[in-house]
Amino acid sequence: MNLLLFSLFREKKRRRVVELTEKMVVDGGDGHNCEWEGRWNHVKKFLERSGPFTHPDFEPSTESLQFMLDTCKILVIGAGGLGCELLKDLALSGFHNIHVVDMDTIDVSNLNRQFLFRGKDVGRPKADVAADFINSRIPGCCVIPHFKKIQDLDETFYRQFHIIVCGLDSVVARRWMNGMLLSLLVYDDGVLDPGSIIPLIDGGTEGFKGNARVILPGMTACIDCTLELYPPQVNFPMCTIASMPRLPEHCIEYARMLLWPKEKPFGDGVVLDGDDPEHIQWVYQRSLERAAEFNITGVTYRLTQGVVKRIIPAVASTNAVIAAACATEVFKIASSAFIPLNNYMVFNDVDGLYTYTFEAERKENCSACSQVPLDMHFSPTSKLQEVLDYLTESASLQMKSPAITATVEGKNKTLYLQSVASIEQRTRPNLSKTLKELGLADRQELAVADVTTPQTMLFRLCFTS
Ligand SMILES: [Zn+2]
Fold this sequence. Notes:
3 domains; ATP-binding; ligase; alpha/beta; nucleotide-binding; Rossmann fold; 36% helix; 15 strands; binds zinc ion; single chain; globular; Structural Genomics Hypothetical 15.5 Kd Protein In mrcA-pckA Intergenic Region, Chain A
């Protein structure tokens, strides 16, 4: 598998070197006027000599560096904690053609770790500021920013890259990106064309924990293959909150979950808003009282807001470790000089330091990458609501707001769609109808669209008796 990728990139590089040689004859120069003596010595040590850890097929040459500097196009998704680190690492490793996509603007709370940003940049798009910083600091490097959602860019855009690196904090965005790269795969008589594979390097961090993984779409485990690894939100047991609190968090949860709905401090039906200081202040005061009752210390305003808004503190050093691991994988794949990570690295320094690597396996019936039509088993008397619940609650699907359509009596019919209010209203009554009442038949195909993927997913409805 790695050998295949290796030869793929070597072939791309060889073609590029021929082009460059021709260009040099025309231009009469190499075009690198911003280079200086010894600039890439650190990288050349890896690429221009053999070593005990090099890939078995590795041949030392100057081509790899030229490929990285001139040709290799990298896309970085996210210009936040991981993104800043990634851009710096990649640019200093010799990648000079980088695009970055991020939809966020800079907040003052980012400045402690997102080191490409300064106080004067608050309010400006992260992608723009990050690109400007790298471009002005690293001669010859060209970072092109896209202040956009990943969903606003199409497959023509994504297809231009050799490698894509994700530094995202959202599982939905990750799954969408995964789905996009899977949709770019070309199958010829069921055989995957390796030229259509764009490797995806995915980094993720949460507090002191992080992971880095290498995904070869269509060949190795994809994001959705391992969806069960993203567990639902961990909550404290209600009995602990209600009767035996031990942590300041338990006291805050008590005020948030039990006192707020009971005392209705801001009126009936007012939902607790984590961004409203008066709301947080109320929860904070109640939490303090609760904590005093049980001799618990550590309830602060800041912690209260953190618990209410479910904030997990970002740790700069975790971002640095994970981004470095991801950038190293980009370097290994782009240069073909070393064997890539196979394929999932876990990092945890909550207590001491712990790390290991394992090979995540492809799931035979992965809803995203398996090419196998998925069967859904329901009784004809099941209601459409049950189908909807299955799509959102199944650990392997975890959809957010699925839209279900089917062809009934030759016509395309929207059974339920949540994202457009008027259609939601019109289709809501369908949820309490049975599948039979909706005119659905055994072996019927259902098309489901969701924010977790750019592609519509097809399911086969199998009636159980
Ligand atoms: Zn998969």
